[in-house]
Amino acid sequence: MKDFIAISDYSADEIKDMLDLAIKLKKQYFKKGNKPIFKGKVLGMVFQKPSLRTRVSFDMAMRHCGGDALYLSPSEIGLGTRESIADVARVLSGFVQGLMARTFEHSHVVELAQWSDIPVINGLSDYNHPCQGMADALTIIETFGKKSKGLNISYVGDGNNVTVSLMHVSALLGWNVTVATPEGYDVNRQAIEIAQGIAQMSGSKLSFVRDPHEAVKNANVIYTDTWTSMGQEEETAQRGKIFPPYQVNSKLVSEADKDVIVMHCLPAHRNQELTDEVADGPHSVIFQQAHNRLHAQKAILARLFDVD
Question: Are 22 and 157 part of one and the same domain?
């Protein structure tokens, strides 16, 4: 494996292998600590967007496994402005053993991978969020175990980059996905077509509806995200008028399976897309989900570095 740009670049067996390794590394960490499998390796972390979970989880993943991480701020690089993406990729390829890039435009991380001689990981782009998708899958598997095949995953809210990766990993793992979005805020059409192709092979069912109440019927998982992502701030007022019917609150949760879990990739705008009562309630796994970024990313890094 050279890069980790999109979950849909991988087969179901490859994704399952990484998730199995994530479970192993997580157990190892809590039992006696991880082995120094990343010793002598440094991960360069290129940021165009700020982050809490992405920065800390990648940094600590490298440290837990004996490696190191180097934070590179937007002002230090000026990706594609101060210096061409191709030049940045080729320069950093001589300094570090891997790159993680959190970018606004998906084309930027793709171009980094194109010109880099070392593995490149997509830490988030405007198209998808594959590292989050892997942490989400790990959390769902931990919750439902061997019963996870055929689960019903319901996403409610804006059809954004998180939705894309959740949809793709769910289809690969044989989970059914229902997405409820307001008109005009649908998931990327190309991403839907990719998911449909995966679902045909795995037997998953994909559904796209407008009504959030319809979406959560028989749901084992309810997932939501912020109504306004970074870079869309000028749309905040308009989105604030459109999205309130898509709030994940106690009433909506009560319409799902009695053992439903509620997920959110964070940061959450509490009492907007997700109420305090739900976020801090018995169905919520949002902090387990956040912590699983660390362990899922250890597995991604291990496969890219070809260590075990």
Answer: no
CATH number at residue 90: 3.40.50.1370
Does 125 share its domain with 237?
no
- Residue 137 and residue 173 in contact, taking contact as beta carbons nearer than 8 Å: yes
The domain of 26 spans 7-129+292-305
Query: Are 136 and 120 members of one domain?
Result: no
- Among all residues, which ones are annotated catalytic? 102, 129, 132, 225, 265, 293
308 residues of the chain, pLDDT tens digit each: 699 999 999 999 999 999 999 999 999 999 999 999 999 999 999 999 889 999 999 999 999 999 999 999 988 887 777 889 999 999 999 999 999 999 999 999 999 999 999 999 999 999 999 999 999 999 999 999 977 789 999 999 999 999 999 999 999 999 999 999 999 999 999 999 999 999 999 999 999 999 999 999 999 999 999 998 867 788 889 999 999 999 999 999 999 999 999 999 999 999 999 999 999 999 999 999 999 999 999 999 999 999 98
Q: Specify the number of domains making up the chain.
A: 2
> What pTM does this model have?
0.96
Same domain, 75 and 177: no
The answer on 168 and 202 residing in a single domain is: yes
Tell me: do 283 and 298 sit in the same domain.
Answer: no
For residues 104 and 226, state if they share a domain: no
- Examine residue 215 and state whether it is found in any structural domain, yes or no: yes
